[in-house]
Amino acid sequence: MDEYVPPLNATSTPPHNTTNHGNGTHKPFSAFDGCEMHVEAIFFDLAVQSINVIVGIPANLLVIAILIHNRKEPSTSDIFIGCLAFMDLYFGVMTPLGFCNLFVWNSKAVWASLKFSYGVKDTSGPLFLSCICLDRFVAVLFPIQFGQLKHIKYRLVLTILVFCLTFAYSTAKMMGGFPNFEKVFTGEILATFTWMVACNTSILWALKKSRGAGKDEMHPMKKKAFKMVLSILYIIVLNYLPLVALFPFEDHYLPYVFRCYVQPAGFAFLNISSTIQPLVYLLRLEKVPFLPDSCIKKFSSSKNSKVAPAQNPPI
């Protein structure tokens, strides 16, 4: 493989979710910034992001519409789900700009805005999912305390905190020039992944043990909750495990290998969550408002012949 020559423009912005490295020497701006000869993983990430545009944007719009439709009877996690859908929608809308900038505009200003959107995706997704896991964890394992903490003010505080952290991280990512900035994301993803896996595993264990004495079958509602949490755990592993497995070993890769191959490929698994997360929410609904029953039945795993009134899943 060709020897790596570090990118020379410290002020330019690397492709996709990566953070720039450079020695300050000026050269003409390139949206690929040092990966012009190693674009395979970048194109893979772009292909994945295309799914977000085609499927993810409509799905997230539908999730937001359903949450507004059901605002009179919200679940405790709705504020987190709505914010997550909005952030994923924003990230999906920015994707066409990325395509245009790579192949047509080649603009630093556009790359700066794209870097901000990648920072939003890096931070808001894991943090809002962690909030959802926390809400579910307290509800299942500490139901009495959960009843005392149902007021929306507690969730508003968490939401504002996540927005502040997201804005700070995204701004720093957009500006660039911070040494070892990737390690901030690596630490974040390791912490949130560990929390979400431990949280959901604890919930599954509690639900498994909660079946009545002498009963072989779990209560239908608890069985439904068990399957729901298990499916979310699968998604967490699918979207975050590749990053957890690859990113902590950054120092063991050649710089261009990590930057042009490992990072884009790893982020592709994170980016596709903008489509997977809203679809999982929609498929757990017994009926989706604004859509014909036949449409949701085609994709839903529900075997019920009767369709219940629309309601939010206990996410």
From TrEMBL:
- Composition-biased stretches (Polar residues): 9-23
Region annotated Disordered sits at 1-24
Transmembrane: present as a keyword of the record? yes
Alphabetically, which GO biological process terms does the record hold? phospholipase C-activating G protein-coupled receptor signaling pathway; positive regulation of Rho protein signal transduction
Q: What is its main location?
A: membrane
Q: Name one GO molecular function term.
A: G protein-coupled receptor activity
Where do the TM regions start and end?
46-67, 79-105, 125-144, 156-172, 184-207, 228-249, 261-283
- Name the record gives this protein: G-protein coupled receptors family 1 profile domain-containing protein
